[in-house]
Amino acid sequence: MSTGKTTKTAASAPFRVADHLRNGHDIAAYLEAVLEDGDPRAMPVALRTVADAMGGLAALAERTGLSRETLYRTLSEKGNPRYDTLTSILGAFGLRVSVAPQRRVRGALKHRRVA
What we know:
Blueprint: H1 24-37, H2 42-53, H3 57-64, H4 68-74, H5 83-92
């Protein structure tokens, strides 16, 4: 039986990743998790999220020397950053590109000793 009364509940704020990226370790862990997820389309959006956490695309444009238009296009859902753009953006975040062995991959090439 309904009494016709509504119960007020506290409004919840939407979760924003950018609000939780406080330092280089947080940013690196976030980007690493995005890479581990395996969806290459997620990385440009993740980079834009980090840019938002660090003052927005205007601040990133100033730090990288790239135009805001380039950054908007590159860091969109359809973006595909070139290597030099990616290294500039990561450098502005205090990060760099690194290569590490994968944990365990089926069908991975085996090492061969080179004399």
